[in-house]
Automatic annotation (TrEMBL):
Residues 1-18 have a biased composition (Polar residues). The keyword Hydrolase applies. PROSITE patterns: HD. This is Deoxyguanosinetriphosphate triphosphohydrolase. It comes from the Bacteria. Residues 1-22 are annotated as: Disordered. It comes from Chryseobacterium gilvum. The keyword Hydrolase applies. Keywords: Hydrolase. Residues 59-252 form the HD domain.
């Protein structure tokens, strides 16, 4: 990949460029902020149940913070590329790296979770397992590659669909973002049938069959390296590493702070882990100790250390990215930036192990994951059998079920695969509350008119 060829302001929907006070990449950021898909993240679980008396992070606040970190990473790396590759860069490229790479990474970070369904990863699991459990009844209706999409449902691939797919009655190109921004969220740029554990860029998959042609346009326009054309597999785009690093930095640290505010993690445990990580990277630890000695409020002490930890991890991610930039351009780096650092820093390993034991396996988290799985599974089971029935076998109860599907998600003239994707669009786009309310109504738990 060449630094002059890995970005473009071309958009989905083939819209002509317009002259405005904002750049095309700033417009991406603004479009995401005002989109309904982004707004719905405010009621999608990050880790802990929502809502509560203590305000913890949801998917929206998480995405805003990731975007803030991503902007810093993108701006600094833009300066690095402009300085170290100046003899290779065109004038347009210099302008992009100095003034717009930060906007691209910020926009990509902002929308990196828009494809995630309600209830976090348990929502993803529910969608995938629905098809696995009903394989005998419905697998024959789909091609091998279509079936692979369904049994491996993945929020990253769904994000591309949410952002680029034309829904019924809506405009071409979905959100009509630039290919540069869309390429930056493609952590797993391959078809579902090509996913393979142990290979970073194929750990999951990055696009559904329905969006394959759009993804190929994105890949070609941004210079992504093709590894295979059948099935389609690409090397990661260079900007993906920065989006991933911003996400990894935030969720590793913010989940710990949330757990502390909820009383799941003690002040001593949280403070010690954060302080050890800061100490391992700080050249002025005395200043940190002096600052802590002046703060008596526990939450404020943790907030201060959280900020210092995030700053330390940003600096480390930048250092590793710079060191490996030629490998990143060549598509040969095979380990995430934070994972590279984790392998050499025991404290970050300890934070991860502690989080798994004390946070992600906490009863409140496990309960919401179990409940969420059942809600999402049952919603699919309410709609999919009816949507797949041929016209001569549809009964009145099928018609009643399908009346609950908004028109933009109904593809009457499409294939069975497209019809099912429409249902998945509806269900995966739901907020936690909406999914729970609809589940209670169709199950007869709540009966009566509500708006």
């Amino acid at each position: 990949m060449h630094v002059n060829q890995i970005f473009t302001n071309q958009r989905t929907g083939n819209n002509p460029h317009t002259k405005a006070s904002r750049t095309d990449f700033q417009r991406d950021f603004d479009r995401i902020i005002f989109s309904s898909a982004f707004r719905r993240l405010q009621n999608k679980t990050q880790v802990f149940p929502l809502p509560g008396s203590v305000f913890v992070h949801n998917r929206l606040t998480h995405s805003l913070e990731v975007s803030s970190v991503g902007r810093s990473l993108g701006s600094i790396i833009g300066e690095f590329i402009a300085e170290n590759y100046q003899s290779d860069l065109t004038e347009d490229s210099k302008t992009f790296y100095l003034h717009n790479l930060g906007n691209v990474i910020a926009a990509a970070c902002l929308c990196h979770d828009v494809g995630n369904p309600a209830f976090g990863h348990s929502g993803e699991d529910a969608i995938a397992s629905y098809f696995e459990k009903n394989e005998n009844e419905i697998k024959s209706k789909f091609s091998e590659k279509e079936w692979a999409d369904l049994i491996n449902f993945e929020g990253n691939a769904n994000a591309i669909r949410v952002l680029a797919h034309k829904q019924q009655g809506k405009d071409d190109g979905g959100s009509q973002l630039t290919f540069a921004t869309l390429a930056s969220i493609a952590k797993y740029p391959c078809e579902a049938i090509a996913k393979q554990k142990g290979i970073l860029h194929r750990k999951k998959f990055g696009f559904f069959q329905n969006e394959k042609e759009v993804f190929l346009e994105i890949a070609n326009a941004t210079g992504m390296i093709s590894e295979s054309s059948d099935p389609h597999i690409f090397k990661r785009h260079p900007f993906v590493w920065l989006v991933e690093a911003a996400d990894d930095i935030c969720y590793n640290i913010i989940d710990m702070e949330d757990a502390h505010r909820l009383g799941i993690v003690s002040t001593a445990d949280c403070e010690n882990l954060f302080f050890e990580l800061v100490q391992s990277e700080s050249s002025d630890i005395k200043r940190v100790k002096d600052k802590l000695s002046a703060i008596s409020n526990d939450n404020e002490r943790i907030s201060y250390l959280r900020a210092k930890v995030i700053n330390a991890l940003i600096n480390k991610a930048l250092e590793i990215y710079r060191q490996n930039f030629e490998k990143i351009l060549a598509g040969t780096l095979d380990k995430a930036l934070l994972d590279i650092y984790k392998s050499e820093n025991k404290t970050l390993q300890d934070i991860e192990s502690f989080s798994i034991e004390k946070i992600y396996n906490h009863r409140a988290v496990v309960e919401i994951e179990n409940a969420g799985y059942n809600v999402m599974y049952e919603l699919l089971d309410h709609f999919i059998p009816s949507i797949l029935k041929p016209g001569n076998k549809i009964r009145s109860y099928d018609k009643m079920a399908l009346k609950l599907l908004p028109k933009q998600f109904v593809y009457d003239n499409g294939s069975d695969y497209q019809k099912v994707l429409g249902v998945i669009d509806f269900v995966s786009g739901m907020t936690d509350n909406f999914a729970t309310d609809l589940y209670r109504k169709i199950k007869g738990i709540d009966i009566g008119m509500t708006m």
